[in-house]
Amino acid sequence: MLTDPIADMITRIRNAIMAELRHVDIPISNLKKEITRVFFEEGYIGNYKFIDDSGRGLIRITLKYIKGESPIHEIKRVSKPSKRVYVKKEEIPLVKRGFGISVLSTPKGIMSDAKARSLGVGGELLIQMW
User: How far is CA 59 from the centre of its chain?
Assistant: First the structure.
């Protein structure tokens, strides 16, 4: 049993990028589905699909490479099970002066930092990437 499935997801993506793999499979959950959707909407991954694998589902993420380089240079977990990090709408940080994104869990769902600012909501700061 994993204690932090989001950290596992991030590690799988990071390892697949370092190995220059085209796809990475991640065990499915509703939270990971929403995080994957945000990655896709923000242009950090090429595509994704949900696979029903004999009762256990998977998310197959197609990684994106531009001229042999991934748009994901660094990805890190901010809020952890041992130390939760919450931000108010005014305190949502800019990642790399706006060249990166944060993924937040808000009362209105999982979304990027830009969308959270536009909707005027804060929440738990899950992931930062650039």
Answer: 13
